[in-house]
Amino acid sequence: MIRPPSASKLVTNFPGDFDPATCERLLAKVHAALVLGGRAVALQFVLNDDRVSPPAATGLSLGVLATTPSGDTYTFAELDRMFRTVGFRRTELHELPPEHVLIAHR
Fold first, then answer.
1. Closest Cα to residue 11, out of 66, 88, 77?
2. Rg of the Cα trace of the chain?
3. Average pLDDT for residues 29-58, to the nearest whole number?
4. Residues 6 or more apart in contact with residue 98 via CB below 8 angstroms
5. Cβ neighbours of residue 91 under 8 Å, at least 6 residues apart?
6. Using CA atoms, how far apart are residues 56 and 26, in angstroms rounded to an integer?
7. What is the pTM of this model?
8. Pick from 98, 104, 97: which is nearest to 79 by CA?
9. H or E stretch at 26
10. DSSP per residue over 29-52, as a string?
11. Is residue 99 part of a domain?
């Protein structure tokens, strides 16, 4: 069954287990599944640019680094770059402590 493109997709905590290239392959599929003007919504732990705060994201980062072959917790700049690389026009970041909501616009 072929599914038509949709207006929105929810992607939660996707990058933790993966390196940036794998994340981008997943995001490219999400992008292709959206209609023009659609949005991808991601619930994520996001590191600050210093990569050692906030505490919840830092703790997750340590766990991911210790238990996956290539996973990581990313900064907003890194996540935004991944979304833009696959064709999203812009990415918004909204706090929803202890996590963040990212909204990427196709």
1. 88
2. 14
3. 94
4. 45, 54, 56, 57
5. 76, 79, 80, 83, 84, 102, 103, 104, 105
6. 25
7. 0.89
8. 104
9. helix 20-32
10. HHHHTEEEEEEEEEEE--B-TTSS
11. yes
- Note down the domain range covering 70: 6-105
User: If you average pLDDT over residues 43-62, what whole number do you get?
Assistant: 92
Q: Within its chain, how far is the Cα of 12 from the centroid?
A: 8
Q: Using alpha carbons only, what angle is made at residue 34 by residues 36 and 16, rounded to the nearest 5 degrees?
A: 130
How many domains are there within the chain?
Answer: 1
Per residue in 57-67, pLDDT (tens digit) is: 988 888 888 88
Residue 1 lies in a domain: no
Length of the chain measured in residues: 106
Strand order in the sheet with 6-12: 6-12, 34-44, 99-105, 90-96
CATH value at residue 33: 3.40.50.150
Please count the other Cβ atoms lying within 10 Å of the Cβ belonging to residue 49.
10
